[in-house]
Design brief:
alpha/beta; Aspartate Aminotransferase, domain 1; Aspartate Aminotransferase, domain 2; seven-stranded mixed sheet; 14 helices; 13% strand
Length: 394
């Protein structure tokens, strides 16, 4: 039976989500903007989905904008705020150096439009120091964007403290919570943020839908212009069936967290991590082993090229990854691990194991049985692919 340990890339869709999406496709075809009964039935489904997302985030439903996923939410936050006339005299944005590319590339695109962009360093364990952010803030800083949990190493940032510093400087704060929602409690009030984005397929929902929470009273320029959907903040007819799936997935994830699911995952992660370190010499954990989401571990294997190990494990029926699925297929080393200051050899030999609710003890046992042999084979033959890797850009 294949073993899937790449939940940070995407998750299996919950069976209840599949049923709800299928029912909506089959029975609720109305346009939620229509005032007749077919449209209003579809609108009711959207309202229910919005309610579940709001409950997941400790928010009010009126503050939740339904989107096409995490990348769209991040773009709406950064581009939407940058486009406001009030930003004419505040043209500086601060992001962390190991943000997801949805934030990094959006910030860099704003830089090409005349914004000043500062990418702040992270500590060697992948946690941002409040002092580092404080030093980067300027009188014209408009936006600070720091992800809640990192997608490659799982580290959780001190968002509440960072957001306070941003607000003290007169800036607004956005966080990409795509990798934390559904894994740990996410409460927008406790975090003190102004905008927070999530994506359904990271916690058992369909791909291509998500949401962004926008603090009441905060106005953003719409990135998608057209109709008045989502109170004018996101034009376009809503994908009702998929958004129904988002709502059901949010409810299930919240229930699972309330019943202690995070503790079970952390125990499995700790077991696979300890087993690897014990059975495979020349291994090291990347990131902070304490402040991280419960399902993720990132481990470097000395003298092994990460992609070769991923392929070797896949041949054994075990799916893992070298990092972000959104960067797959490039020859560039992980910008996340580079931001930690790790040497190139350690960056290129890193593997991410990300677990999920369906992960079992038997699967962990299987990985620990197979992995040492796979690593030993690669080390014996010598991994010539390492020499083919381009040098990292300075």
């Amino acid at each position: 039976m294949p073993i899937y340990l790449d939940y940070n890339a995407t998750t299996p869709v919950e069976s209840e989500v599949v049923f709800a999406v299928t029912a909506a496709l089959r029975e609720q075809f109305g346009n939620p903007s229509s005032i007749h009964s077919f449209g209003q039935q579809a609108k009711t489904l959207l309202d229910e989905a919005r309610d579940h997302v709001a409950a997941m985030l400790g928010a009010s439903p009126s503050e939740v904008v339904l989107t096409g996923g995490g990348t769209e939410g991040d773009n709406l936050a950064l581009r939407g705020l940058a486009g406001m006339p009030a930003m004419a005299t505040r043209r500086h944005i601060v992001v962390s150096a190991f943000e997801h590319e949805a934030v990094l590339n959006t910030a860099r695109a704003l830089g090409r439009l005349g914004w000043a962009v500062t990418e702040i360093a992270v500590g060697p364990k992948g946690v941002i120091s409040p002092e580092t952010l404080k030093d980067a803030l300027r009188p014209d800083t408009a936006i600070v964007s720091v992800m809640h949990a990192n997608n490659e190493i799982g580290t959780i940032q001190p968002i509440a403290e960072l957001s306070r510093l941003a607000h003290d400087a007169g800036a607004l704060f956005h966080t990409d919570a795509v990798q934390s929602a559904g894994k740990i409690p996410v409460d927008v009030g406790a975090l003190g943020v102004d905008m927070l984005a999530i994506s359904a397929h990271k916690f058992g929902g369909p791909k291509g839908v998500g949401a962004i929470w926008i603090r009441r009273g905060l106005t953003l320029m719409a990135v998608n212009t057209g109709g008045r959907q989502e109170r004018g903040r996101r034009a376009g007819t809503e994908n009702v069936p998929a958004l129904v799936g988002l709502g059901v997935a949010a409810r299930i994830a919240s229930e699972r967290l309330a019943s202690g699911g995070a503790g079970r995952l952390a125990a499995l992660r700790d077991r696979i991590e300890a087993g690897i370190l014990e059975r495979v010499p020349g291994t090291a954990i990347n990131g902070d082993s304490e402040h991280r989401v419960p399902n993720t571990t990132n481990i470097s294997f000395e003298e092994v090229e990460g992609e070769s190990l991923v392929i070797g494990l896949d041949l054994e029926g075990i799916a893992v990854s070298t990092g972000s699925a959104c960067s797959s297929g490039t020859l560039e080393p992980s910008h996340v691990l580079q931001a930690l200051g790790l040497p190139t050899s350690r960056v290129q030999s890193a593997i991410r194991f990300s677990l999920g609710p369906q992960t079992t003890d038997a699967e962990i046992d299987r990985v620990l049985d197979v992995l040492p042999g796979a690593v030993a084979r690669l080390r014996r033959r010598g991994d010539r692919r390492l020499s083919l890797r381009p040098a990292p850009r300075s």
